Amino acid sequence: MRRIALPHRSGSPASTLVRVRSAALSTLAAAVIVVLLLWPRITDYYSYNATYYNGIVASAAIAAILTVSLNLCMGYGGMLSMMQTALQLVGGYGVAIAVVKMGWSWLLGLAIAIVVGTLLSVLVLLVSLRATYLYFGMITLAADLIVVEVGRSADPLTGGVVGIAGITPTVGGTVIPKNQFYYLVLALLAGTYVVQRNFVRSGAGRAAMAVRESTDTASAMGIRPATTKLLVFGVAGGIGGLAGGLYALQMGFVNPDVGLLDNGLIFFVGLFLGGIGTLVGPLIGVGIIAVIVELIRGYARYTTLILGLVLLAAIMLIPAGIVGSWRSSRIGRDPTGPTDEDEAPGDVPATVPPVAAPAGVAALEGVGLMKFFGGVRAVDGIDVRIMPGTVHGIIGPNGSGKSTLVACLTRYHPLNAGEVRVFGRPAPRAPYAVAAAGVTRVFQAPHLFERVSVLDNVLTGMRMRERYTWAGAVVRTPGYRRQDRAERAEAMELLRFAGLGSRASWPASALSHGQKRLLEVVRAVATRPRALILDEPATGLTPTELAALARLCRALRDRGLAVVLIEHNVDFVMGLCDEITVIESGKVIERGVPEHVRRSPAVLEAYLGRPDLLEEAS
Ligand code: ADP
Ligand code: MG
After folding, report:
1. Tell me: domain 364-617, CATH 3.90.180.10, correct?
2. Atom 1 (ligand 1) nearest CA
3. Global model pTM greater than 0.85
4. Coil, strand, or helix at residue 354?
5. Which residue, judged by its Cα, is nearest atom 22 of ligand 1?
6. Distance from the CA of 11 to the center of ligand 2, in angstroms?
7. Cα–Cα distance measured from residue 102 to residue 94, given in angstroms and rounded to the nearest whole number
8. CA 587 → CA 287, 396, 584, 592, 600, distances in Å?
9. What is the pLDDT of residues 344-374, one digit of tens each?
10. Ramachandran bin of 67, using left for φ above 0, alpha for ψ from -120 to 50, beta for the remaining angles
């Protein structure tokens, strides 16, 4: 995801490195762009065969567009797609039928190519919503085979095995010269790149990344996994269709062979070589392959073999691709910069708005909840009522069913019996919908997005509140920019509270255990929940971090939230909670104010084996 420029002290070695590096990279990029723009003139000047050399670059640019589409699916969306050549084929048919059969403009043809590419992707995704990674890949493989076969047999429309020839882009009756078409292709590649970049850096892209990493985590932030996948795959499909349309215009024909799986090899190799899940990786990868293919032109029948070897070598030597390896290299890495080593958790941010809740209605209520795992009665008839404006502790020994209770309340587990209500209404069925109704949870096991920045982790929590569309983000409307700025400012405030202000651009994986826990908590707070469930957030925190967590819980309570605090250690909860529910073996054994719970014989009994826990508390 986006890498943020760090506030380096000017003159420090780190800032010099960053400046020199970015100047060198900008110069390189500018040089490549200048060469590409002048390419038709260069080839005119140096070669008898200018059209051939222009064609090579145009074809590579078209392949790069398709590779960007693959990158969106696989790199950012985490969806294995084997149907990129099918997208190329249907896009090609779209243009061919529009231009040759209908006599429409090629521009309209390109628009149709985008639409049919999108539709094909959406259709495939809808039939495979529940498929896992590998099965999804197999379904796209099947889709590819089907599209090719339909192309072969739908003779009147597609020209059967022969295909459709004579596809030429014209303006006012005259054919557009190849070197002008070349510029059109370049412009569309640039446009595709911008779409990819702006999409990935927006909330829509962060949601895709969240779903890629874990549907459970994404759901806890109110992100709908299915809709998110549909959007990413649909956008990728549109881009794939566009590439197919351009391909047909460039070659002048389209036939079912365009959709063959073998032809998809180049996109995979390009993506893995350049760097999957990076913005420029697909472009660099395809560019290098175009050069390789040209160099081995004399041995064309070995092309597939050589590309296969390149793919193998890339995966073995640079699994993260050229861009990924560069980013983790000594010069390519962002220096972690001057962080404030002693940065302590700050004040609770004022941006957390007060929550208005109807009086007397429980924020979260479970009635007669039961959840069995085989013979284990993990939750065995539990009633809980969690009121707004309170911190409600749920304590009990390890394995007593606390986490399972949370999973039941937030709909991660289907119930064997019982009912869940959120602010008096029956809780929705899906976890993301529970989050949308205002109940956010922090899991007991770490659920951070380790590979993205600390800041992006927090921003992901704001997805539910984002009011811009993905298209608005892609064209960066003023409304989008305003929201994006406000979100970043708010996220920074939350990070300063967690003592992470100077680490905003770090990958989350670089944080200490306690910092990660606090980051997960503030990411949950960023969803602006009305009820916040924290499953053993205190484990492994330093005393300063513990104090910050306690301050946050109190502040949220004072702003009207219902805070549910799960702990197996009685010590931390006693001073903090307004009400405590004690469970053991899936049953409530005591409930009430801390004083009452502390004296309860049942609780003393339950903790008999662990007198240490109670000693600390009393
Ligand atoms: P706690 O959070 O209080 O430590 P849990 O809710 O995690 O306890 O677990 C309660 C009981 O349910 C344990 O016996 C545990 O082994 C069992 N359990 C929890 N989750 C599962 C699961 N997904 N499959 C099978 N058993 C489970
Ligand atoms: Mg637990």
Report:
1. no
2. 399
3. yes
4. coil
5. 373
6. 49
7. 11
8. 63, 10, 5, 15, 15
9. 788 888 878 888 888 889 999 999 999 999 9
10. alpha
